[in-house]
Amino acid sequence: MVLKSLNLKAIVAATLLTVTFFSPFTANAQDSTDDSALLEALAEADSAAALALDRQLQALWGNSGSAAMDLLLKRSLDAIERGDMRQAVEHLTALTDHAPNFAYGWYQRARVYYLTERYGPAVADLERALFLNPNDYNAIFALGNVFEHFRDPERAYQSYLRAQAIHPHHGDVTSALERLKPAIVGKEL
């Protein structure tokens, strides 16, 4: 009985060791830790696959790599959901102070600033987020929203086109492009 138990433990340990060593070598476009592969797959995906890839990218970009920073992000998102934008800004400011290279934190704070009509700080945070992650199609879309708010449809349209090039099935981007297209395309000669 003891011999069988030891043998079973050895088999389980060998299996876990094999999985640990050989799993990273079988990565593909669905590997949720490879953002360039996910982005490449997103650009070519149909709408159903794009939804899953978008979720993977958001999960990847929303992970700071630090439990403490992830907790600040969670608290800020909870505050946004409750409508407590002051608390959300406080948490996001702490997050961006302690994790200045975490693009998603800058994007989220820009979002809160935009929702509270603080457009200058929103643009500054979007610029920082896009400097850190130039492929964040949600941040590019948000920048387009700011341009549209300030009645600059040409720049908004260009932002939306840039976001669409990265995520062709982004519903909000598609709607924005359709809304602005008559005003922009009608000006071409």
UniProtKB/TrEMBL annotation:
Keywords: Repeat, Signal, TPR repeat. The keyword Repeat applies. Coiled coil: none annotated. The lineage of its organism: Bacteria, Pseudomonadati, Pseudomonadota, Alphaproteobacteria, Rhodobacterales. This is Tetratricopeptide repeat protein. TPR repeats lie at residues 103-136, 137-170. Residues 1-29 form the signal peptide. The keyword Protease does not apply.
